[in-house]
Amino acid sequence: MKDPFINRKYLIMALMVLATLGLLIRLFIIQVVKDSYRLSADNNVLRYVTQYPARGLIYDRNGELIVFNQAAYDLMVIPAQNTRIDTMAFCNLLGITTDTFRERMSAAVQYSRRAPSVFLKQISDETYARLQEKLFMFPGFYVQPRTLRKYSKPIASHLLGYVSEVDDGIIRKDPYYKQGDYIGKSGIEEAYEKVLRGKRGVKIYLVDVYSRIKGSYANGNLDTVAVQGKDILSTIDINLQQYGEILMKNKRGSIVALEPNTGEVLTLVSAPDYDPGLLVGRVRSDNFSKLSADTLKPLFNRALMASYPPGSTFKPINGLIALQEQVINPGSMFGCDHGYLFVGCHSHASPLNLEGAIMNSCNSYFCQAYRRILENQKYKNIAEAYDKWKGYLNEFGFGNKLGTDFVNELPGFIPATSYYDRYYGKNRWKALTIISMAIGQGEVGTTPLQMANMTAAIANRGYYYAPHVVKSVGHEGNVDPRFTKKHLISIDSMNFEEVILGMEAAVNGGAGRTAGVAALKDIIVCGKTGTAQNPHGKEHSVFVAFAPKDNPKIAIMVFVENAGFGATYAAPIASLMIEKYLRGEITNKEREQSMLNLNLMDTH
To answer: Domain residues of the chain, as ranges?
Structure first.
């Protein structure tokens, strides 16, 4: 009879042979092939120094340098190599207290006894020079070179963003980052972090017991080279940006200017703002805390994140939709007796056609046009007509993110029918219930960026490109394909021409024009004023415009909080910005000085 355990015996023997063979192969790899294991064993005599790449530079649309790099030095420590030192001499050299020394050494030990960690960030050039001469006296310490951001002008903080040290959450989320690395936060720095940051390298040095470098390990064959980050050519006109920030000094609000035929952001101002240099270096943490606690909210990007009622700047959109839905025509006349039902209006000629209604900013006209949109008999009910109206707004980019390269853009708010169904009850609301939407009030909320984009779409007679702030990455001259996609609006171009006539008349027309203050000699500016109601205080001053009328080069939106009528402050500021961009100089010095001297920070 065959022994039943014979096969099992052979199986066990085979497994033992395979296991032994595996161990021998693994031992061979560790001892002969893999230098990295030997490096770990020799860690007490080797030093791994990270080679941080230079971060990519940022230029404006004309090639002017905006953001560059400056040298900085972090003092690193490996606690296991830190034998007894003259603590007092060390502290005096660095200008720190012995308590600070103990705290930071304790933190380094808690992180790791054998791995390097930052002991003191971003020491000055003078301290670095003194330290280099005496570093051999302090085993376990060495200097890690790196770079910090520097700015050619103290402007464009919300556009550019800033760079800060990674935290544990970022390290857990993205294994590329390690303790001591820096990452872009907000603006271009965050949106284009992966191309700006480059790629780290490492140099491996032999060091003696006094932490003095004796040379490269293995003749540098195991070193890796840092790869510099790619430069960025932005869409910003840095001189126009600077001018916009000067005009908005001592004011709350924003300016957004776009190039209509590309969607490129020429200027994006959020006021109050801050000097981006405040968030660089060892002072960054303290300054960030101060800026965060500032009641004026200088860190808040109003251009992308604030949701405002657009006021009368919304009227051209309702005019366009009414024309497209054929509930009015350019010659349709509506009377105005200081308002429509419970919606008031100012004194002006009456009755008016569409061009005159835009020129005079007649509330009554647009209330009646809006009511016709929602009571259009080709739809089975108000809700269906409202959905059609909302669909047009979505095509303009309202109620949605525009797909920009900004990381903190918000969508604004255009209510769905379900919103009113919940509030009033299904089939229990009518056109008059939400009639304030006709004049850009009520529940509608838009961002300044969306209003600038709307203006660009009107200037283009029915399409826009997603606003973006980078023209190209590196020197290839390329642009992200999503920014070359034309977003079409399902409104006939001839209807845009009719509305543009009204916007032209609002600036350049005769008696009754509401935006004459924005007129420029030899440049046809088309615009629309707005006075947005504010439940928390004085109304907001709003103005949208583009110029020239034909082949427009700039579309702009200016929003000045708590400043009253659109023609009072927003329109003059927009006019100055347009002239600055198109001509390069200002002809109306009196108007310029008036806006520069204006201080609205004490108004509520």
So the answer is: 47-78+119-124+144-234, 238-276+299-471+479-597
Are residues 208 and 214 in contact, defined by beta-carbon separation less than 8 angstroms? Answer: yes
Q: Which amino acid is at 359?
A: M
Backbone phi and psi for residue 256, each to the nearest 5 degrees, phi listed first: -130, 125
| Among the listed residues 67, 55, 162, 181, the one whose alpha carbon sits nearest the alpha carbon of residue 117 | 181
Residue owning tokens 């109003």: 302
Please state the three-class secondary structure of 397-446 as a single string: CCCCCCCCCCCCCCCCECCCHHHHHHHHCCCCCCCHHHHHHHHCCCCCEE
In the predicted model, is pLDDT for residue 40 greater than 50? no
CB distance 307 to 445 below 8 Å = yes
Interior CA angle at 561 toward 446 and 454, to 5°?
30
Instruction: Give yes or no for a contact between 347 and 336, defined as CB atoms under 8 angstroms apart.
Output: no
Please tell me the predicted confidence (pLDDT) of residue 192.
95
> What Å distances lie between residue 224 and 45, 49, 83, CA to CA?
19, 11, 30
What would the two tokens of residue 18 be?
């395979």
Could you identify the residue written with the tokens 């020129």? 359
Residue whose token pair is 């989320």: 173
b/e string for 2-18 if b means 16 or more Cβ within 10 A?
A: eeeeeeeeeeeeeeeee
pLDDT in tens, 112-131: 888 888 899 888 888 888 88
Query: For the residues 282-307, what does the mean pLDDT come to?
Result: 94
For residue 85, name the pLDDT band (cuts at 50, 70, 90).
confident
Round to whole Å and give the CA distance between 472 and 467. 14
Mean pLDDT of 246-274: 97
Which residues share a beta bridge with 234? 470
DSSP code of residue 291: H
Pair type for strands 232-234 and 58-59: parallel
Contact 523, 547 (CB under 8 A): yes
Q: What amino acid occupies position 505?
A: A
Closest CA to 194 of 168, 164, 159, 229: 229
Which residue shows structure tokens 């490129």?
264
Which fold, 47-78+119-124+144-234? Penicillin-binding protein 2a (Domain 2) (3.90.1310)
Nearest-angstrom CA–CA distance, 9 and 19: 15
Of the candidates 258, 392, 264, the one whose C-alpha atom is nearest the C-alpha of residue 319 is: 392
Is the Cβ–Cβ distance between 405 and 481 less than 8 Å?
no
The reported pTM is: 0.87
Angle at 437 between CA 431 and CA 441, to 5 degrees: 145
pLDDT value at residue 210: 64
Q: Is 550 exposed, middle or buried (0-12, 13-18, 19+ CB in 10 A)?
A: exposed
Three-state secondary structure call for residue 372:
helix
* Domain 238-276+299-471+479-597: assigned CATH number: 3.40.710.10
Nearest in space to 438 (alpha carbons), one of 562, 309, 347: 309
- Its sign, for the CA torsion 30, 33, 37, 38, is positive
| Whole-Å CA distances, 388 to 30, 376, 379, 492, 497 | 70, 11, 9, 16, 22
